[in-house]
Amino acid sequence: MIAKQLLPALAAIGSVAAKSATTCTVSTTTINSQADATGLASCSAVKGSVLIAPGAGPQIDISGPSTISGDVILLNNGIITSLTSSNLGTIGGEFHLQNVTLLSTLSFMGLGRVGSIVWQSLPALGQLTFGTPGVTEANNVTISDTFLSSLDGIDLTHVSSMDINNNRRLTDFTTQLGNVSSLLNIAANGLQLKVSMPNLIWITEMSIANVTSFSVPSLAVVNGSARFDFNYFSSFNAPNLTTAKTEDISFVGNPNLANITMPELTSIGGGLLIANNTALSKVNGFPALKTVGGAVKLRGNFTDIEFPALNDVKGAFDISSTADISSSCNTFQKLAPSSQGGGGQIQGTYSCTSNNANANSDTGTGTSGSGSGGSSSGSNNTAAGLTINHALLGLAAVGGFAQALW
Ligand SMILES: *[C@@H]1O[C@H](CO)[C@@H](O)[C@H](O)[C@H]1NC(C)=O
Ligand SMILES: *[C@@H]1O[C@H](CO)[C@@H](O)[C@H](O)[C@H]1NC(C)=O
Ligand SMILES: *[C@@H]1O[C@H](CO)[C@@H](O)[C@H](O)[C@H]1NC(C)=O
Ligand SMILES: *[C@@H]1O[C@H](CO)[C@@H](O)[C@H](O)[C@H]1NC(C)=O
Ligand SMILES: *[C@@H]1O[C@H](CO)[C@@H](O)[C@H](O)[C@H]1NC(C)=O
Ligand SMILES: *[C@@H]1O[C@H](CO)[C@@H](O)[C@H](O)[C@H]1NC(C)=O
Ligand SMILES: *[C@@H]1O[C@H](CO)[C@@H](O)[C@H](O)[C@H]1NC(C)=O
Ligand SMILES: *[C@@H]1O[C@H](CO)[C@@H](O)[C@H](O)[C@H]1NC(C)=O
Ligand SMILES: *[C@@H]1O[C@H](CO)[C@@H](O)[C@H](O)[C@H]1NC(C)=O
Ligand SMILES: *[C@@H]1O[C@H](CO)[C@@H](O)[C@H](O)[C@H]1NC(C)=O
Fold it and tell me: In the record, which residues are listed under signal peptide (predicted)?
């Protein structure tokens, strides 16, 4: 219906402006068939959006315009197998593909700039046919629930947010990203996913789950928070990380993790949470950590915990192990609040317990520990506690939704 109105409009624009490069102005043009797509071929640019209808297909080629200023949208289409353009270079708005079950060819050899990529529930899409380097500019990227085994063709140096989840065949993600100004979420992809970000220098929020290896040799600053849940790596090293400026660093439920090393980390604006990483017996990779703006909460099978430079914890200091850590406790007792007999470097409640069989069952960010034995004046435990990130909770919901579409 919309297309019928628009095709004459396009034709009219074409005849008026035939001499020069033709910009076709539409609000949204709907493509129901290849004939509609061919109607666009004479436009060198489209000012507006292109909607590919649920009934369009099986092959749609939108070659012609080199720029589409608005969105390119293809939703809920169970027919189309191939969407292509040989020369489209820029999509100003969203490149949104969702619930397109048979789409197996996505060929955009000229595409370099996209406002946002939103690709969700594309179970037949096994590869991208993009140029080299491909898309080098995009503000936000969501790639969820696809059959992609590689993201070659997307080569960004900076991005606002990037969410890569539930791509079960994805086993390698190597990116030149230098900074992420809002959020990087990686979760529930291939079980052997190796993530390598050799150029990443700063990032705001980062949530990494279910990855097998993770490399950030240049990471210097986490402006917000970094959390690592249910990963399979045995060692985590952030050799250049100096600070998490405002929020938490957390490692929860990483069953193989035996070594966390952040040799240059001096301050955490929020809290430090390390819980239920049962292979981690020593926490001794924080030689420079001096200041923690929130709480320190550690739960696990520890035998030894060391924070040799620690002298300012604004929140609680709450440590509990399944094993005997009494010699570590003796050291930290000296930093406890004066009301608990220490020097006051720890301003919240101090608690340190050994031989707590249930140590690993408490992975929450609150500091109301199950541990007994340590003293507790108990008043301001949560005041400077670890923070909860609503943006990350939102992304978890997106992942769940994507899974439900399978
Ligand atoms: C996905 O698209 C199919 C058509 O191919 C449609 O029947 C189905 O309702 C869509 N699913 C959702 C969750 O929108
Ligand atoms: C990109 O994501 C950020 C944070 O999620 C959001 O504030 C912003 O509006 C998004 N930008 C676009 C162009 O979608
Ligand atoms: C983010 O990274 C890009 C590409 O590396 C760079 O041009 C830009 O200056 C960086 N922005 C900041 C604020 O560091
Ligand atoms: C994050 O911190 C780095 C280094 O201090 C800074 O260059 C960058 O602008 C900050 N980014 C944001 C979004 O605040
Ligand atoms: C992936 O990580 C999530 C936590 O973000 C966890 O709930 C889930 O069980 C993990 N899946 C696997 C297969 O490890
Ligand atoms: C680590 O930081 C130092 C000092 O800022 C810098 O010279 C070095 O290149 C960084 N290393 C990496 C791998 O980025
Ligand atoms: C832990 O990892 C760091 C950095 O990779 C390494 O230097 C150190 O030897 C490791 N420690 C153990 C006990 O494996
Ligand atoms: C961690 O401690 C629990 C409780 O004592 C124990 O059941 C579990 O086997 C320990 N795990 C490891 C890897 O040591
Ligand atoms: C602790 O981690 C194991 C996986 O190593 C997981 O099965 C268990 O549910 C986790 N416990 C809590 C309380 O998160
Ligand atoms: C608890 O926190 C409140 C508000 O931050 C503060 O006024 C009060 O003095 C604190 N109490 C103790 C016992 O630290």
Answer: 1-18
